[in-house]
Amino acid sequence: MAEVSLRHRLAERGVDRTLLLLLPAVVLIVGLFLYPFLYGLQLSFTPKTSGIFDNYRTFFSDPFQSETIWLTLRLALPAALFNVLASVPIAYKMRGRFRGKRLLTAILVVPITLGTVLTAEGLLTYLGNAGWMNRTLEAVGLIDEPIRFVPGYWGVLLSLVITGFPFAFLLTLSYLSGIDPTLERAAATLGAGWWERFRRITLPLLMPGLAVTFCLAFVLAFSVFPSAVMVGEPSGETHVISLAAYRAGWEQYDYPLASAIAMVMGGVELAVVGLVLAVRSRLYRGSSGGKG
Amino acid sequence: MRTFKVSSVLVWGAVAFFLVNLLALIATVVVNSFARSWFDTWLPTEYTLGRYAEAWQEFGLLQVLIVTVIVALAVVVVSVLVGVPAAYALARRNFPFKRVLMLLFLLPILIPPITYGIPLATVLYKFHIAGSLAGVILVNLVPSVPFVIMVMTPFIEQIDPRIEAAARMCGAKTGAIFARIIGPLLVPGMLAASILVLVRTVGMFELTFLVQGPESSTLVVALYTAVSAAGIRSQQAVDAMAVIYTLSMVVLLVVGLRFINPTQLVSAVREEPRD
User: Is residue B43 less than 8 Å (CB to CB) from chain A?
Assistant: First the structure.
């Protein structure tokens, strides 16, 4: 009897055999994510000479290493911001139903299929000294000498925009499609112009979604690695933090230092995401109209 | 209404500018992959198909493609089998520490792959799993399973639990409810999740890169290694390989868009009422 009543009491709190369905996923994430993460955290505090903060001290006392935080943010923040801000007007024009919407969406999403290598190769050739861009500008007479676009900061930024934009756009379009269009029409009957309708109705309802989109775009851009090597200057202005972590671990075989850099990277990234989400929690997050 | 038109022109103009440049960028790589050599001219002087044969042989593309297909399919199957039941439990039950669990499932998506990839690869090297096909599949499960859970939980929530209750009242056992009621209703969601996971896995660079070995590198990683590794390799052959990669991704995306409406990723679409 005691066993039955315990089972009943647990069932009242929602604990029953259905929760066993969670078991494989929990085992997998704990085993392959949480345990390695904690192992890495522990590894990053392995003393080398003087104390448990050795690896962090190595990272922060060497400007070539610690500078990577700034170099990465300098790429990831503008890229994420641009991708989100550019998606808004395009998605705004594309909400609702019109002929060819599916085709246009597909075309805008094409860059997902390119991959970093084709993007990088394309940027190097297209924007290179003898590339079509410089040739066209010279033919039109805008420039006399080829402009050096790549490799460097701008090349990596462009590659982040090309590969990151489709994701930001899809999410923004998806959030925007979830806003009830009758709300705007109600405002229109009250005499609001399109800008006022956008600023007072659509934008406030869209902001929480935009915050999430920004976070995901930022996460994507912050882990920039292959393109920083291929179209950037991997030892100069695009010496990004993931590259520093990779070199420490896979070229110098210093796993504790690599783990420490990885932890710093996670910390900086979560700080930015946390800040954005904190701002988001202050925004209106009610129903966006219609049912639920 | 005039400002409205100006804004339309601006937006579509910018989109057209972006697309023209993107097209030119893709065209550069495609043209280059067919070129014998291409120096200071608008177009290459001689064309050849030889670069594709070169890429195919020199980079062992057959092996690489087989590995990519195996890894992608294995990741899709396992993450759906593990993720969908978990999503069902999360959608239907409220239990203590549910929020903690949700956070645990969210973290692998929010934290950059390199951050957990480096310790994960270190652990896998310690247990001698890294470098093998199994190692590559395991690391790719880490972001995929939470991804399936995140996509499927809202999907399951919108299925009315009264349908299950009604089936149970009519005498269906739990197995029958899953096989004949929930399962068929979930098929569209599972297809969408599978295709998204497939595209993500084929394109996943960082995690695969950290644990791959000579026999277990996927197409993205092989491409990157072809670019960065020392040795005399023609850029045209690399471009040919990149074109092959992009073509396979396009096929995946076209197949995917037949099953998914991308605008419905996070919420139901609210269309203008048709009148």
Answer: no
Average pLDDT estimate for B163-189 = 85
Query: How would you class B44 by CB atoms within 10 Å of its CB: exposed for 0-12, middle for 13-18, buried for 19 or more?
Result: middle
Q: Rounded to whole angstroms, how far apart are CA atoms B275 and B270?
A: 15
Rounded to the nearest integer, the mean pLDDT of chain A is 86
Structure tokens at A152: 């460097």
Closest-CA distance of chain B to residue A50, Å: 23
Rounded Cα distance between A206 and A189, Å, is 21
Q: CA dihedral defined by A155, A160, A165, A166, rounded to 10 degrees?
A: 110
Burial (CB count within 10 angstroms: exposed 0-12, middle 13-18, buried 19+), residue B219: buried
Q: Which two tokens stand for residue A187?
A: 């405002």
What was the ipTM of the complex prediction?
Answer: 0.82
Residue A291, pLDDT above cutoff 50: no
- The 10s digit of each residue's pLDDT in A239-258 is 999 999 999 988 888 889 99
- Beta carbons within 8 Å of A250's beta carbon, 6+ residues apart: A258, B210
Alpha helix locations (H) across A45-142?
Answer: 54-61, 63-94, 101-109, 111-126, 132-140
Class of residue B175 by CB neighbours under 10 A (exposed 0-12, middle 13-18, buried 19+): exposed
Chain A residues near residue B272 by CB distance under 8 angstroms = 96-97, 181
Between CA B148 and CA A184 the distance in angstroms is 34
| Each residue's pLDDT tens digit, B242-274 | 898 888 888 888 877 777 666 655 555 555 554
Tell if the CB–CB gap between B95 and A14 is shorter than 8 Å. yes
Q: Which residue has the tokens 């460097």?
A: A152
For the stretch B128-151, pLDDT in tens is: 888 899 999 999 999 999 999 988
Q: How far apart are CA B207 and CA A231, in angstroms?
A: 21
Distance from CA of B250 to the nearest CA of A (A): 6
Task: Give Cα A245 to chain centroid, integer Å.
Answer: 19
The gap from C-alpha B16 to its chain's centroid, in whole angstroms, comes to: 27
Please answer yes or no on whether B264 and A177 come within 8 Å at the CB atom.
yes
At B169, which amino acid appears? M
**From CA B154, how far away is CA B158, in angstroms rounded?**
6
- Give which of B246, B243, B224, B221 is closest to B233, Cα–Cα: B224
